[in-house]
Fold:
Amino acid sequence: MLKRLSQIASILLYPMLMPTYGMVLFCLAAKQLLPQLPSIYVSVCLAGTAVLTLLIPIILLLFMQRKGYIDSLHIDNASQRTTPYIYTLICYGFWAYFVRVTLQLPLFLFWVIIGAMIALLTVTIINHWWKISAHLTGIGGLLGGICSFALNYATLPLILIIIILVLSLLLMYARLYLNAHTPMQVVCGFLLGLLCTFIPTLIVTNA
Structure:
């Protein structure tokens, strides 16, 4: 039972889902701050994010799995991670362009994406020597994005932050229970994602 729940948690909190989750939260907040924001604008924002950061990378992973380049979508084999991560990084680059140039969304959001790209690049490099947790890097990045939003709009979504922290702890337990990582690998992954997505906004805001 615990194994099944851990597998479900790993799927629902899959790293490639984090940008879409984050954009959903941003759009919900934006609709409250800017009620006049057109619904079509929100729809394009969500659809573009989902296509660039979830659909295209998943299609590439499925293709690689079918060809035998990777064993599963979770890519538990560290030696198989580099190429999928590079493809995902390229997709994130197009996402950054889409968010800032096409949609002209707030600058802090662009820097959150740049931070996420830095985190992914760092994970790709570290992975050659140490299997740091991409799952925890993803959810840590989501929390960093929420903190960046809070800093940019001078607000404190405390309940949301607590929820993400609880989900992060559950995900840590799930990855450890599945023997996918060591405790240090999940903690470092979480901190990497959090710091990489929050610090760029912090620097730009205080510059």
